[in-house]
Design brief:
Length: 210
C-alpha cells in the first residue's frame, strides 16, 4: 500500500458553541505520517478539536489547512481521505455485521485486497457475521468500528478515546491493531490520559486543567 499521509496545520483556532468558547487560540502542526495525542479531561474540548481537524465542523476563529502528497486540500476534501472512530458512533443497528462491513466497503474504499471476511476476522467477529449490530456487546461494536476505520484506504486515522468499552484483552488487541494496520498513516488520538491509546506518540497537545 502506497501511503500519502495527511499533514495538518492549525493557526489560532477557536470553537464556540453559542456564547461559550470550547477552545481558543490553538496553534498546532501535525507532520504527515506522525502520531499526535490530544489529551484532556472529560469535557475539556478534545473531541471538538478532533472534529475540527477532521473538517466535520468549522472553526469560529482562526484557520486550518491540510496537505497530502504536496497538494493542499479543502475542508470538503478532508473527510474523503480520512477515517474516524469515536465511542458509540453511528453504526447501523438494524444491519447484521457482514452487511455493515459490505455497506462500509461500498461507500469507502478499503485497503486494496482487504475483503469483508478479513475485516470480520480483524474485529474478532468471525462467528458474528449474521448477528445484528444492535445485538453485539459494546466492546464488540467498538472493535467493529475500529476495524472498519483501520481497514479503510485513508491518509489519516482520527480516533476519539479508542479503547472505550474495551476490556483488558480488547485493549491489547487495539495495540496490535495500531502496530499492524497503521501503515505509515497520520494518526491523531484524543485520549483521557491513557498512554495505551497513543503508543509511541511523536507529539502531545494537552488541554489545560480546569
Amino acid at each position: 500500500m502506497q501511503v500519502l499521509p495527511l499533514g495538518i496545520t492549525l493557526r489560532q483556532v477557536g470553537k464556540r458553541h453559542g456564547r461559550q468558547w470550547i477552545l481558543r487560540q490553538v496553534d498546532l502542526q501535525v507532520t504527515a505520517g506522525s502520531t499526535l495525542a490530544i489529551l484532556g479531561a472529560n469535557g475539556s474540548g478534545k473531541s471538538s478539536l478532533l472534529r475540527l481537524m477532521c473538517a466535520f465542523d468549522r472553526p469560529s476563529e482562526g484557520e486550518l489547512s491540510w496537505n497530502c502528497g504536496g497538494k493542499t486540500l479543502t475542508a470538503m476534501d478532508v473527510p474523503t481521505c480520512m477515517a474516524y472512530c469515536a465511542p458509540d458512533q453511528g453504526l447501523i443497528a438494524d444491519l447484521d455485521v457482514a452487511e455493515h462491513i459490505s455497506l462500509h466497503q461500498s461507500l469507502r474504499q478499503p485497503i486494496p485486497g482487504t475483503s469483508g471476511q478479513q475485516v470480520l476476522e480483524l474485529a474478532l467477529l468471525s462467528g458474528k457475521g449474521n448477528v445484528r449490530v444492535r445485538d453485539l456487546s459494546s466492546g464488540m461494536r467498538q472493535r467493529l468500528a475500529l476495524a472498519l476505520a483501520f481497514s479503510t484506504d485513508a491518509s489519516a486515522l482520527f480516533l476519539d478515546e479508542p479503547t472505550s468499552h474495551l476490556d483488558r484483552a480488547g485493549k491489547s488487541w487495539y495495540q496490535t491493531l495500531v502496530a499492524d494496520w497503521r501503515l505509515g498513516r497520520t494518526l491523531v488520538v484524543a485520549s483521557n490520559h491513557d498512554p495505551k491509546e497513543y503508543p509511541a506518540a511523536d507529539s502531545v497537545w494537552e488541554f489545560p486543567q480546569p
